[in-house]
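User: Hi! Is it possible to get a structure for several chains at once, not just one? Here's what I have:
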Amino acid sequence: MNKARTASGSSTLRKLISKPEFSILLILVVMFTITAVLQANFFEKRSIVRNINAFAPLILLTMGQAVVIIAGGLDLSAGSALSLVVCVLTFVMRKASPETGAWAILAALVVAVLIGVINGIGIGYLRIPPVIITFATSYMWLGAALFLRPTPGGESVDWFKAFYDFSALPGASDSLKAFGSWMPPALILLLLGCLMWFVMKRTRMGRYIYAVGSNGNSAYESGINTAKIQMQACVINSLFIFLAALFFVGQTMSGDARMGDPLTLKAIAAAVVGGIALTGGRGSVYFAIVGALIMSFVNKIIFFANIPYAYQTLVSGVIIIVAIAGSQTYTLYRRRAMARESTLA
Amino acid sequence: MKVLEATGIKKCFGGVVALSDGNFSCQEGRITGLLGANGSGKSTISKIIAGVYSADAGEIRYKDRLVRYRNPNEARKDGIAMVYQNLSLVPDLTVWQNIVLGAEEKKRLFLDNKAAKNLSKEIIDQLLPGLDIGKMVYELNPGEMQIVEIAKAISAEPKLLILDEPTSALEKAQVKSLFRFVRSLAERGVAINFTSHRLWEVMEICDDIIIFRNGENVGSLDFERDGRDPERIVSYITGDVQKVKVSRERRKNGGKSVLEVKGLNYGKFLRDVSLDLKKGEILGIGGLAGQGQHELLLALAGNYPSVDCVATIDGEKVRLNRPANSIRHSVLLVPGDRELEGLFLKQSVYTNVIFPKLGLKHQPLFTPRAKYRKECERAVDVLSIKTSSLDMPVRTLSGGNQQKVVVGKWFSFSTNVLLLADPAKGVDIGAKRDLYGYIVNQVREKGISVILYASDTEELAEYCDRVLIMYEGQIVASLEGDDINEDTIIATSMRVR
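Assistant: Yes, the chains can be modeled jointly so their relative placement is included. Here is the combined structure:
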């Protein structure tokens, strides 16, 4: 007993480094370092802002996806949903009348929530396997987006640029521009997303999302309305998609019905890299950010490493597999080592 | 004061009567025990009271009002909490999060975690001091999980607490502190219903007991009035009527060893198990449910890669870490749960019967269909499996016939040892007789040896030459000759004698 107490300091450290989170952070540090070495001006303010802008949409989608996965679901329609919300925004807005921007945001929010509700009814109440129902709905969102915007284009009110870059805002004051130079809007959106989850995690809903994903039957027996919780998880995902859509329109000032598609599987992969178990109940929404960062750094590394274009996709696949396998092997190895120590003691 | 009274409860599952006339009552501040052999209906009546099952007939009065719960939640809201054998915990939440799950208090917008932790700590400190309430439930051992399950039930402050085998996963010290706590709950006026296989525990904790046999209550004892007499309890459990003596002559011990195992260990399920199976012997494995019998048979069949044990089969050393090793020495397993382990339910009778052959070495490139079909037909014939054709999906057969198919899988193999894991579970009497008739014939004609685990003591008493009794993963007794009767088997299983 006494011996255990004196050794407790080092055992806390050991416990820490045997957590799966530790190995994920380790991978992030490795990727970060490689990128910093390869990109000459990595630490300049301008390229930091540029990187945040490039990473933000994937991070937001991954956070949303993480909530659904933790609740025991999966959303294959996230990318198409993003396209649809973007198309709704650019469909409603008229460059000439600034007030249409507010209507567009309202309409987009309603559509986003509706998307979440429909996915949630399918997963939660109708008990259709998530992969199937969201695969089906992804075509619905894509179809609706194509209906609103058959070809890329559309227009946007000028003040929407505030979602991308404060200095591009017409008539912006110098102080706002200065603020924007160290606090890009993308970062504000990310913080908003984090705050959203910070609040929700401390409510019954946040707790129940984990319970339902971990063991639905036990949760049900404990008196939790599991279908409702799964629907709420889908709606939270939609809110993250909505934030990403605001950023996209601010950046491109137009809409494209196919822009979101490639992001769906990237976000799911990023969530897995971030340690979120596809079986549900396990993982952290904040670590989804880490996963998305790792994925984004992988893309940058491939870009800077002068890998021929034809091989880029292949290499990125290999790196992701190495990252996931590495982190799991490491955790397993540490666990085994700890188990050995505890049996010796 | 009577808290709950159930009268004339009846419950059938499919065609099987689990409870024909169940009566039960419990009182404020008293601990009432439920006792009975496997399948006597004691678990069923607990679950009906807690709203897990609904009764087919009979009525339940709770606090002088007729109740009929449709699910456990309704019962819990009414103050009836049940601790389940199969746990209702969420593995990825912490201990305290599980204890308050579904009943979280709020403090303005956020959850009141402080109050929840305090409440959990207060309960856990009484049940299992030293358990870290911040631990994830998946990190706990089965005993700790059981304690958390109990803590969760208690946190709702029930008026009636149903404990269904709460001690099966616990160690001695944990049982002691649990009993202290249950007693203190009773002193606070909670009515407690306690079910256990372990007679000594029941005698230690309960104020009175109700005994079940074959789906009805056959007796009740108030310990204060009637005294604590284990022999009397056992006679209630087994029934006073002596069964007709079995005509089959039991083989005397002796002959050549076929399968010899020494010091078999597997996790906490099997501890230092040694046995010696003679040629032409039917060796029974008895004991209360879940004392490691199932694990023993699976281990002998080579299902646990981590078992580090060398067995001697016909004088040859064999490592029991792969099913193929056991099968090669003709040690064949007939699993108990045919739907989970024994059959491909959607496949045909033919596919199921010939399947083990496909795994043999030196298989012809193309399956000799005509030959195999003939073998399959013979198996169906000899075992009298009732099926309209060999191509019927096994799922469409009755339970008894399904079980015969499981046995038929090994029909064309040369059998040395047959391991039977509760082969007649949920099988009707006719099929049961067919099945055992076939097995006894095989033993007599081909001189094979059998290890039989049966949850029904009657089967053990009728067919076995020797019976080993298991308790908590160990073999605690070996019965031979005239000692093999239901009375002795049950008494030994409960460790009365």
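The radius of gyration of chain B is 25 Å. Residues 241-247 of chain B have pLDDT under 50 and may be disordered.

User: Great, thank you!
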